[in-house]
Design goal:
This protein is an alpha+beta fold. It has 2 domains: 12-65, no CATH class; 73-120, Orthogonal Bundle (Arc Repressor Mutant, subunit A). Helices cover 41% and strands 23% of the residues. It is built from 5 helices and 5 strands. Helix 3 crosses helix 4 (87-95).
């Protein structure tokens, strides 16, 4: 098999997880990364591999996901989907002044950049 060298820097925690996964699964790190890249498929269907360490050992799995590119201004429903919470929670936080937003025509609107700044300060 023809191989091309690939050198990457991983955060220390993720590098340790890759080492642990390779050890537990008895596969080389090269094989794990190769299989991950091969599993990406086409641009419409991406996969993410999750490696978590717990007291009980190592859990390896995967989940399908579609990237979500939120608009610059979001409705309550869009923000709830983006943040993966329910709409009443978004409305409560906005009404209390905890979440940056504005009411326009009786409905809440949220600037994506303001929400990102709010999240970063939490």
């Amino acid at each position: 098999m023809d191989r091309t060298p690939l050198y990457v820097r991983l955060p220390a925690a993720e590098a340790r997880r890759l080492d642990e996964a390779a050890h537990k699964l008895r596969r080389s790190k090269q094989d794990l990364v190769t299989r991950l890249v091969a599993s990406l498929g086409d641009a419409d269907t991406l996969r993410r591999v999750t490696v978590e360490t717990t007291d009980d050992g190592l859990t390896v799995g995967h989940a399908k996901f579609r990237p979500f590119a939120p608009p610059d201004v979001l409705t309550t429903a869009q923000l709830a989907e983006w943040l993966q919470v329910d709409e009443p929670t978004i409305a409560e936080l906005a009404e209390a002044g905890d979440l940056p937003g504005r009411k326009l025509g009786g409905e809440w609107r949220f600037a994506r950049e303001a929400v990102l700044a709010w999240l970063a300060n939490r």
